[in-house]
């Protein structure tokens, strides 16, 4: 099952010529789940992978740079005669926010549900879940953890055959946990394997809840609004420095740290270099880059740079 994060917007509170406002798209199989929807998100998607029919949107908090693109995107879906349902989740207060947008949204032609989550609550998506947790920002703010179910161990086909199990349907029965002709699954299945885990910090100052949620995550996407030289300002606004993000990644022993919510006041290289002094496995996605997260036995998470489609000569 393919799993990746597409970075539609990686800027902080103000867009820059090269970075749009916060928006990250989770792609897993056929699922398309958007985390935050800053102003211009639909334009960012249209310029890159296309304005995909997002299934679900999660908002981290209600500062305008994280949701102001939502009304326009919903109206675009309506104008495209969308019929598929769309679900919106977020912290307490999200219903009030949507109610205040009613005069803009009007009546949408597709089912649209709004659900307020409590910290620690999980939304199930078949064989994975997305759970919320409190972070330290101004007002109620969530981070999110995407966690797949654990997977069964590897099936040893050669061993099963040597024990007298015929290849074919009986192999499938063993892998589903059934005993076949006296051969138990434990005899031919390796140890169970953890599912993949991705954690998104949202906007936050350093906090224990985030480090706990990110423990052994394959990928941590963490804001880095400031450099260490401006740590006092970071503390006042309840944001993080690049060093603080790296310390969280190091404490949580994550596979890869990706820094977002970047301020135009700093060169990107300075942000990356500062974080790598503490945590070497750090990357700095640009808009339209994506990170592939394979199963651990198939490799490590990898940042893939965006390559715009080649132009066709007139």
Automatic annotation (TrEMBL):
Pfam families: Lactamase_B. Zn(2+) 2 binds at residues 65-66, 203, 261. Keywords: Endonuclease, Hydrolase, Metal-binding, Nuclease, tRNA processing, Zinc. SUPFAM superfamilies: Metallo-hydrolase/oxidoreductase. The keyword Nuclease applies. The keyword Iron does not apply. It catalyses: Endonucleolytic cleavage of RNA, removing extra 3' nucleotides from tRNA precursor, generating 3' termini of tRNAs. A 3'-hydroxy group is left at the tRNA terminus and a 5'-phosphoryl group is left at the trailer molecule. Homodimer. This is Ribonuclease Z. It comes from Paraconexibacter antarcticus. The lineage of its organism: Bacteria, Bacillati, Actinomycetota, Thermoleophilia, Solirubrobacterales.
